[in-house]
Inverse folding.
C-alpha cells in the first residue's frame, strides 16, 4: 500500500517559514514514524 502526504498551500508556506533545523526534525519524524509504519502513527478516519 502506498501513502501520499498532501499539504495545503497554507501549510506548505508555514513549513517553509520554519527554521531549517525545525524543518529537518519534522522531516526526520515523518520518515522514522509515518513511512516505516503508518498504522501505528496515524489515527484512522471513522465512518459516521
Amino acid at each position: 500500500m502506498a501513502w501520499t502526504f498532501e499539504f495545503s498551500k497554507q501549510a506548505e508556506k508555514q513549513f517553509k517559514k520554519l527554521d531549517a533545523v525545525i524543518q529537518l526534525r519534522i522531516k526526520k519524524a515523518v520518515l522514522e514514524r509515518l513511512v516505516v509504519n503508518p498504522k501505528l502513527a496515524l489515527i484512522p478516519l471513522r465512518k459516521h
In short: Residues 9-39 form one domain. The CA atoms of residues 33 and 41 lie 6 Å apart. The chain has a mean pLDDT of 81. Residues 20-35 form the longest helix (16 residues).
